[in-house]
Amino acid sequence: MLRSLTIKNIALIDSLEVTFGAKLNVLSGETGAGKSIIIDSLNMLLGARFDKSLLRHGADEGLVEGIFCLSKNKKHELIEQGIECDDDELIISRKLFADGRSEVRLNGRLSTAAVLKNITSLLVNIYGQNEHQVLLKTGSHLRIIDYYAKIDVEPLAAKVAALHKEYKDTLNQIGKFSDTAQNERNIEIYKFQLNEIDEAKLKEGEEDALLSVRQKHLNFERIVTAVGTAKEALYESENRTAIEAVSAALSAIGRITGAGQEYEELYERLEGVKTELKDINYTLGGLEDSEFSEAEYDKIERRLELISNLKRKYGGSAEAVQKFKLKTQTELDNLLNSAEHLERLISQRDGIIKKLTKECGELSKARKEWAEKFEVLVSAELAELGMPKAVFKVEFGAMPAPEDVHKFLRADGYDSPEFYISPNAGEPLKSLIKTISGGELSRFMLAVKVITSGSDGAGTLIFDEVDAGISGIIGQAVAKKLAKIAAGHQVLCVTHLPQIAAMADAHFCIEKEEKNGRTTTQLLPLDRNGMIEEIARLSGAKNISTEAQSNAGQMKEWSDRFKLSK
Fold it and tell me: Most-buried pick from 125, 335, 355, 499 (CB within 10 A)?
């Protein structure tokens, strides 16, 4: 859950720190007080794109930081994602700069917005006003069903996606081999490439050996000088040579070998040194006889240049060039026998379509079974949300004919379900996107969220004005639903309804104030009396009726009793 939030230099917020509760956290305030700033800041904390216009006027940088408490399962998931979590918490900070850059840190370590967005999806689900509109796109209906049914659908969908990729790859191959003109061009290219590699006659280890020889050529003068000096020191010095010095020592020790075992061993060692020096001298003589050949050096350079060009064109190493050759030879063989290969590909395509059709059928069957359960649950939730006569259905449409299935295949199957609803008794079922009103859409969205929250791995749910377009007794029903969700999740809810505010376990009031000619937004935690005053304000009767405070208190007491009864 999100334990605390820090915001600095974002829009009207100078500096703000807040600690949230584990259940239902309500945020309320006058229109324009800055509720959207809080949501925008949370979105940026979760990886949304940073708009530099949100930075407070005159500030060079801003900050949004959140501390998340992790369950054992969440900690394990984050570690699997490569995020180090030594403690049972994750500190996410995002520093924002005036030039539009941002800096992300996870537990103090630099990261990226993409990684941030990926891991926060495991922790937080934010449902804003714009997401109501997602329900008005039929493409989202399949995602909702799949999300609800993911325990069965995910493995089936993974099989379908893998087969679909294989299917598309095969179609691409068929298209390639069906283009006769391109095939002829490719044949010429492949022949040229293979001929170039064959003529080079590359050998394993050849480049290293050539580089070694070239190095000797480049250091020829230094080598000859060094060899000559060493040889002179051993045998050709005008003064005493190394061989002469060792011979003198050998003669001296030879006269006392009978004096003890150690002298005899020393004599043997000196004999070994003399023999080794003679052998070294012989080797040096051979090296001294070597000659520099300009022609040989040029030959080596040309060979190395050829090898370098081949590596650049066909791979980063001699081994890669050989792999390229084998692959190209296979491609050439296929093109030279394109008719046979095309026939094999068509057969392969038909086999994949057969498998894909079967797997899509299994996937569709699972979706329809779960959709029936979803229909019942959504209808029940809508009834509790003031739509007792509403009828909800998930229409999958007619199945494609077996011979036409391939025309409808997608990476996610061939289903295109659409939500239908009859909001009132006696009305026919109609497409949700054409029928539902704003208030009904808010309730429908909340019903979906209540149902899918059990499948939601996120520990924190954020609702931005889920109560749009509703009031009165329906607002009370929505408040109950939020309390129900908050029994198993941390919920942050921005609202203008007193019924939802009364259900809060923790309540924060968003206010604007002016200091030294600057306007700032504050988020103030309310005690029980403060909660009751805010409920009275939201009800619209705070300064009108003397009973407003009493009514607000009664509403709060009723809400407390409701939560205890659940």
Answer: 499
pLDDT tens digits along 124-177: 887 765 566 667 788 889 988 998 898 899 999 999 999 999 999 998 888 877
CA-CA-CA-CA torsion sign (25, 31, 33, 36): positive
Average pLDDT on 339-354 reads 86
d(CA 449, CA 447): 5
E strands of 323-481, at which residues? 391-395, 418-422, 430-431, 460-464
> Is the CA virtual torsion 401, 405, 406, 407 positive or negative?
positive
Judge whether 288 and 226 are in contact, CB under 8 Å.
Answer: no
The residues with which 111 forms a beta bridge, in sequence order, are 104
494 strand-pairing partners: 27, 464
Backbone angles phi, psi at 104, to 5 degrees: -105, 135
Separation in Å, CA 139 to CA 266, 417, 419, 420, 556: 93, 8, 10, 14, 41
Question: Is 22 strand, coil or helix?
Answer: coil
Distance CA 335, CA 460 (A): 57
Are 552 and 535 in contact by the 8 Å Cβ rule? The answer is yes
Q: What is the CA radius of gyration of the chain?
A: 40
Cα 179 to Cα 186: distance, rounded to the nearest angstrom: 10
The CA–CA distances, whole Å, from 13 to 35, 37, 463, 516, 522 equal 11, 8, 21, 15, 7
Collect all residues with Cβ–Cβ distance below 8 Å to 174 and sequence separation of at least 6.
342, 345, 346, 349
Give the Cα separation of 487 and 502 in Å (integer). Answer: 16
Using the structure block, give the residue that is written with the tokens 């407390």: 560
The pTM score is 0.63
Backbone angles phi, psi at 299, to 5 degrees: -60, -45
| Dihedral sign computed on CA atoms, order 457, 463, 469, 475 | positive
Tokens standing for 265?
Answer: 């061993």
Cα separation, 105 vs 88, whole angstroms = 17
**Mapping DSSP to helix (H, G, I), strand (E, B) and coil, where does residue 262 land?**
helix
What is the Cα 185 distance to its own chain's centre?
40
Question: Tens of pLDDT along 14-59?
Answer: 899 999 999 999 999 887 778 888 888 998 898 888 888 888 988 9
- Contacts of residue 435, defined as CB under 8 A and 6 or more positions apart, other chains included, come to 421, 423
Angle between helices 318-336 and 180-200 in degrees, nearest 10: 140
Q: Hey, how many other C-beta atoms are within 10 angstroms of the C-beta on 8?
A: 19
**Taking the CB of residue 358, how many other CB atoms lie within 10 A of it?**
13
CB 519 within 8 Å of CB 40: no
pLDDT digits (tens, 9 = 90+) for 167-198: 999 988 888 776 667 777 877 888 888 888 88
Q: How far apart are CA 438 and CA 465, in angstroms?
A: 12
Q: Looking up tokens 């060792």, which residue turns up? A: 246
The answer to whether the CB of 157 falls within 8 A of the CB of 411 is: no
Over 276-334, what HEC string results? HHHHHHHHHHHHHCCCCCHHHHHHHHHHHHHHHHHHHHHCCCHHHHHHHHHHHHHHHHH
